[in-house]
Amino acid sequence: MPKTAIAAAVIAIVLGAPQARAQDRGIELGTLECAISGGTGFIFGSSKDLSCTFTPADKSFAPEAYFGAVNKYGLDIGTTKQAVMQWLVLTPLKNIYAPGALAGDYIGASAEVTAAVGAGANLLVGGSSQAFTLQPLSLQTQTGINLAIGVSQFQLRSTEN
User: What residue numbers bound the domain in which 9 lies?
Assistant: First the structure.
């Protein structure tokens, strides 16, 4: 089976899982958009810096800046330029949001395939007390040549702390 078909199947599973549980979505807190630096995958993983902006759904809160890194473990071969990813931030708990609350460590499945222009998806759970889910709102868009399937660890830190 071609590598691109495997990657496409994994992306479909990652994106389909949150939709299959639509009734369990939780409370929408806002959106998180991250610019992820380019880099090279070293077969068993990669690490890339990121800078993000969280835009709360509750307009009484100002947008927040975050920084961090995304580490991928598993098959990761190739080179990519900067990518942009957007997530819907969900929580099962009411009144949990406070400025800086998204800071923490997230983990989840990831898949991406790139041949000149490509796409990827990452469903992540974590943050303060593992209370947040980052559901892909848009596919990660990037350029380069890359195949990555595995687990992503996402470290998010507030610029205010």
Answer: 3-158
Per-residue confidence (pLDDT) for residue 13, from 0 to 100? 42
The DSSP output letter for 160 is T
**How much is the pTM?**
0.69
CB atoms inside a 10 Å sphere around CB 63: 12
Give residue 34's region: left, alpha or beta (phi > 0; psi -120 to 50). beta
**pLDDT higher than 70, residue 86:** yes
Decide if pLDDT at 130 tops 50. yes
The DSSP secondary structure of 131-156, one letter per residue, reads -EEEEEEEEEEEEEEEEEEEEEEEEE
Region for 38 from its dihedrals, namely left if φ exceeds 0, alpha if ψ lies in -120 to 50, beta otherwise:
beta
